[in-house]
Amino acid sequence: MTETFVAPLGDKRGGQSRSSAGASADPNQARRAVVACHDCDLLYPVRRLAAGESATCSRCGAVLYKGKADSVERALTLTISGLILFVLANAYPFMVLEIEGREQVNTLFTGVGELYSHGMWELALLVLMTSIGVPLMKLSATTYVLLPLWLGRRLPGAAKVFRWVEIMHPWAMMEVYLLGVLVAYVNLTDLGSLELGTAVFAFAALILIMVAAEASLDPREVWDQLGRPNAGFDAPQRSRRSVVACHSCQFVGRLSGAELRAHPACPRCGASLHLRKPDSVARTWALLITAAILYVPANVYPVMTVISFGSGQPDTILSGVKHLIEGGLWPLAALVFFASVAVPALKVLGLSFLLISVQTCSRWRPRDRTRLYRVIEGVGRWSMIDVFMVSILVALVKLGSIATIEPGIGASAFAAVVILTMIASMSFDPRLIWDAAGTADDRRAAQS
Question: Do residue 180 and residue 42 come from a single domain?
């Protein structure tokens, strides 16, 4: 993948390109379609890119869009293949555990049922939606949108459905679930004979297929076919009172001040339009403070209790890491510690730092702070490893007096921390970093 640094709208200097395509500025770019950077809000003219190229924001380094060949056809083929694999992953056994001649079979739904039977319906719902429900909805919704487009048609409500495909992306956590399977497998090897079922391999193949489908699909092409494309502008840069970019579909349009105050619906995807996410700072602080409070019981109380021949041994997240270290599994122990202990704490600290920098109107390294935000937003979902591990162990180890694993209140508190920090990162608007840094002078801000 080659990167092309395009010049912002109205910049006469041209772009600095790492590839030959799109290296020079277009003298007619003022009337061309434009795209707004998702992270810093700078406007850019849309250029045609060859397959494998990507246009990158020259100010904050965010990827604006990529050039992809046969986007709809490839993504549709992979998505339909994913639906077939999804059926196989849910129809066959996931893992089979044998202890003292007794056999326990696990499927994707088994862990959900066991959590519910232990009175943890909220945790059961979370596992159900992130490992089964959201992936199925995402595959089905993508097919609903892409299949008619490939046939040259468009079904009713396709634009709103595709907007939800984008919204669901961080909540489809199958790859995180697979890591939870790995941790559970390691924890179960000492208890008895463990066999991986057909569903595990179908599940792993499904993850690869969905990653490939997302990499193949060009959302801009889909949005242009579903609704009107972005129009060109005469002004070299946006007027904050008249130009707004949709945060869902990246539609850029002109609105009067009165229209903006009413938060009208985007003409392309139906989302509410606003210059910045409403009450971004206050909402993010509220979510972070709640997550920080819950972080204590999440690490103090047991996430599960192992009962063997009548005696129980509660396990916290840190004790689980300790057991992995004692078993010589240092890489896996480091992974669990980083994802389940370090990442939630670092997310709270990192977002707090970004909020304080915005509220104090800091001009310190806005590009680096934007990169920090992108890292925080990307790693949060991986903290769900322990939650998925608990759901798998509870489903497999229920052999009466021989061995039983019961979920603990710490698992619910930890899941709440993960979800709250994810929503907090989504509530934070990175464009505020550049507003606080005073980016009216775009030339100076681009060099900061």
Answer: no
